[in-house]
Amino acid sequence: MNTVLEVHDLTKTYQLGSVPVEALRGVSFSVEEGDLVSILGPSGSGKSTLLNLIGALDRPTDGRLLINGVDVSKLSDNELADTRKNVGFVFQFFNLIPRLNARDNVELPLTIAGIPKKERKARTEEALKNVGLGDRMDHKSSELSGGERQRVAVARALITKPSFLLMDEPTGNLDSKTAQDMMDLVIDLNKSQNMTVIIVTHDKSISLRTRRTFSMTDGLISSDEVNGQ
Question: Rounded CA gap, 75 and 123, in Å?
Fold first, then answer.
């Protein structure tokens, strides 16, 4: 089994004026291909900082972070952008383009990548069917429910065939039933497509549905628990 993410003694320090703030204080863990894990913690625990590093949006102050064996801390800006293509992002606020329909929102990354139109169309339709929106492709985001918009966001994240899906509070804007429906979808994608999923959340009910939970407190992993999933 391949290791898609390795984190070794990761630290991140920010300067708040003249005061150094240690957001991460030596975090270590790894994620295997096909795993379904959550990073659980309250606001201020360091999980958002860790998400930015895992997503190759920032570099650590010290330590090593490897995505598919590539150490992010040693990359140039252009190389970092290339590595970012291995990550499928799903955000709390969906980040869909309102004037575009579901099909066009999902297809956009392929259009930017210069993928031929026929292939774009086929991959987009398959992605939307995989998230249960085969009959909603031509609806604009304003015509979709919150749960449907999050499904569009998942389809868009998967369209580029990333090494892993990184979800930032993906149920934070959903009611409890829709949030559990979203987790049903994520678990199904993880099992049926062997998709590696990392969920950053403050919601313990969500984390309990993943196979493993890394709990964060004060910039450290305070526990690593295996769940029943």
Answer: 31
Amino acid identity of residue 76, one-letter, is: S
Residue 141 makes CB contacts below 8 A (sequence gap 6+) with 94, 96, 97, 98, 100, 101, 102, 105, 149, 152
Average pLDDT of the segment spanning 66-87:
88
Angstrom distance (rounded) from CA 108 to CA 96: 10
Global confidence as pTM: 0.91
Query: What SS3 class is residue 204?
Result: helix
For the beta carbon of residue 15, count every other beta carbon within 10 angstroms.
8
Give the confidence band of 54 by pLDDT, cuts at 50, 70, 90: very high
CB burial readout 101-128, b (16+ within 10 A) else e: bbbbbbbbbbeeeebeeeebeebbbebb
